Amino acid sequence: MRVLDNLSSGRLQNLPSSKSLTFIQGDVRDVGLVETLVQSSEMVFHLAEFIPNTDQYGIGHVTKFSTREPILDFDVSARGTINVLESARKADARVIFVSTAAVYGEAPGNPVDEGTPIRPVSPYGASKACGELYANTYNRVYGLRTVVARFFNIYGPRQRKYVMYDLLTRLRDSPSSLTVAGTGQEERDFMYVKDAVRALLHLSALDNAYGGTFNLGSGIATSISELVSLMTRMLNLAPRIDYSGVSWKGDIRRLVADTTRLQKTGFSCESDLPKGLHALIMRFERSMSETEVLGQE
């Protein structure tokens, strides 16, 4: 197995130490590098997108970052995707293209199924929709075996961005008070990272999945206020919580997956939100303790 990443936000230490794994630091926009890596591959899992270091860009979602850097976002998610698809076409490799629920935008009905019209409200959603169109076009025109997997809100240990990590960081810094963007009534569909990986591997092994599009989520709506309440209980904290009432441009109020199509393939999630959140918190607290020890040396 080979992993390509430019480490703009990822961390090398998150990869397991294994003789069967080779890491290559590089960029999906480097067509020569991508072609070299793909030419001897049978399967490509394409997850690359514009995710900058949050130390530089601040907290928030990738939709927020894309509104600040729409051209860079397009360059990675759209041009990078066609680099992968063209390289896979030459190598006759299969491709699992990881897209996003952000392609739906403010869908009129929730949960949303894969037939819901895509109307992104952020450059990130638009660039991912462009990648989907190319993946499906390569499937129809060239017979390239592609699957489009639309991630909803994936979370888990080693996460260092997005709402859960942001909340944990703020509560660590200020346990007695917490200010949260939005109204708290925004709803999300949280899927534990191990379930997301299982779903990708599951789809990659199904011949009849190729040429298809699948929502990857839990199918369960959780409001941000419910998430905050669950998290503070697990941390044994009772902070004063204030909701700002405003959020960043491109933020979506409600986005929940209809997972019927995925379930019909025989897949089901194994981790519920309390179980997954507990694992995330345990890892977060351990990493903070390790940082504190290192800082004292």
Could you walk me through the main structural features you see in this protein, from its secondary elements to its overall organization?
There is one protein chain. The protein has about 300 residues and is of the alpha/beta class. The protein has a single domain, classed as Rossmann fold, CATH 3.40.50. Helix content is about 40%, strand content about 15%. The protein contains 10 helices and 12 strands. A 4-stranded parallel beta sheet has the order 3-4-5-10, sandwiched between helices. Strands 1-2 form a two-stranded parallel sheet. Helix 3 packs across helix 4 and helix 4 packs parallel to helix 5. The C terminus is likely disordered.
Quaternary state of this entry equals: single chain
For the record, the CATH class is Alpha Beta
The structural class is alpha/beta
Mind summarizing the main beta sheet? Answer: 4 strands, parallel
Q: Would you give the CATH topology?
A: Rossmann fold
What is the β-strand count?
Answer: 12
Provide the domain count.
1
Give the count of helical stretches: 10
Helix content: 40-55%
Shape: globular
- Which segments are poorly predicted (pLDDT under 50) over 5 or more consecutive residues? 292-297
Mean pLDDT: 91
CATH homologous superfamily classification? NAD(P)-binding Rossmann-like Domain
CATH 2nd-level architecture:
3-Layer(aba) Sandwich
Q: Widest sheet: strand order?
A: 3-4-5-10
SSE ordering: EEHEHHHEHEEHEEEHEEHEHH
Distance between the termini: 36 Å
Structural Rg: 19 Å
